[in-house]
Structure formats: C-alpha cells, structure tokens
Amino acid sequence: MSFRELFDLTGKHVLATGAGGGIGTTVCRGFCDFGAEVACLDISEEIANRTANDLVKAGGKAIPVVCDVRDPKQVETAVAYVIKKFGKIDVLMNLAGAGKPIAAVDVTIEQWEGIFNVFLRSTFLFCQAVGRHMLERGKGSIINVSSVASVIALGYGTAGYSAAKAGVNGLTRELAIEWAKNGIRVNAIAPCQIDTPGLRDTLADPVYGGEKLLKSFLEIIPRGALGRPDELVGPCIFLASDASSIVTGHVLMVDAGVSIK
Length: 261
Prior knowledge:
This protein has 261 residues and is α/β, with parallel strands linked by helices. It is 44% helix and 15% strand. It is built from 8 helices and 7 strands. The chain has helices spanning 24-33, 45-57, 72-86, 109-137, 159-179, 197-204, 211-220, 233-240, and strands at residues 13-17, 37-42, 61-66, 91-94, 140-145, 184-191, 251-254. A 7-stranded parallel beta sheet has the order 3-2-1-4-5-6-7, with helices on both faces. Helix 1 crosses helix 8, helix 3 runs parallel beside helix 4 and helix 4 packs parallel to helix 5 (159-179). The chain is globular and about 50 Å long. The termini are far apart.
C-alpha cells in the first residue's frame, strides 16, 4: 500500500451531526472529497436537504437526515436509518451544537440543562447508538468536537459551554479505553474561535460587545486571526482515516496555539 492511501476514505460511510452548520458543511465536503459517503444530519429538513444536495452537485455522495439531537428517540431512529441506507457506519462525526454566551449569574437551570443537552448529552447519545453498531462490526472511528474552552477559561459567559466541552473530553477518553480492544477509536478536536456565520451573528449583536468581543478573541490567538472552517478538515480527515490507526483517546488542539499561551 502506498502511504498516499492512508488518508483515502473511499468506501467509508460517515454520519455527521450538525452537518448544516458553518463548520459542518465544510468538514462534510472534505469527507466527500476524500471518497466517503456522508449522511448529513441536521435539525432542519431544509438545511439537511440543501447540504446533501450541494455535496452531490459537487460530485460527492451524500444523503440528508433530519434529527433533533436532544431527543434520544430521534437519535436512535436516525442512526438506524443511516445504517439501513448505508449498510454500515465507519465514522461518526459529532458536530452538532448551537447557543449564545450567558453570564453564569444569569443562566437558568433550564438554559444550563439545554447547553448540556446540545453539547454533551447528544454527543453521548450518538456515541452510544453508533458505538453499539461499531462494536458488532469490530471497527470504527468516532470524532467528537470539543473546544479550547474545555482546557482554558474564556470568561465570555461560557461557563456552561466550557463545562459541557470538558465533559466531551472526559467522555472521549473513557470511551476510547472502553472500546479500544474492539477496534474502535474515539478522539476529539478542540478548536479555537472559528469564523462561522454563527460567530459573526454573535459579534454583530451589541449585547455581546461586538468589535470589543472580537478584539478580545484575537488577543488570545497567537497568530491574531480567527480559525477558518477549512482548517478543521485536515484534522478530521486524519482522525477518520487509517493515517491515525494508532491514535485514540486524544483531544487534538486545533486552536492556533491558544492553549499554550
């Protein structure tokens, strides 16, 4: 085998949650470019359909899947649907997540639980449902999306978000140990602030400080620039492919050096 083939995903089937987001659409395109077939899961039927259709138009292979990742029953149904359509799931990419900063003194119990349901519980639910399938097959790669906020304090009303993402790190390590002998690898990427439409919406809202907030972001990023969605494609392809066959339980900091300052 040529080492060039290490990153090849031809014949692989990927289930990506949050596929219609600013990061999701780009990462899914990357999976398709490397030969994978992708199930594009989103809470919005319109967005799921558009994302899958755009990938197909670009020469990729993709199907749409609609699911509210906060609902355990919908998660089980969605995973079963993808397995039926694809025959197997080789890679699970947990990208789903959305929300705005909320000061710790203002967050309600309902909001706190909502943050955990979106960012941590949904990650576990998909890991569990897809993990059962991968355990039966004796192989698979799971990639969770954490955040630089899981290892350093940002202080921007991100207490709930940071705690949930720290939970994603712990979950990643525990599943990696539990499933290692069954041929399943579980890793995570931890990005810094990525320039997405969602982040731009937050920056445009005067409630969150606008340019002042952006300046505070750039001050902690050594290169002085936000990350780009396309800069996450390489790490995801690496963790999904045979190039990372010996890598498991790792939280890969994709943060332009923020965490080492």
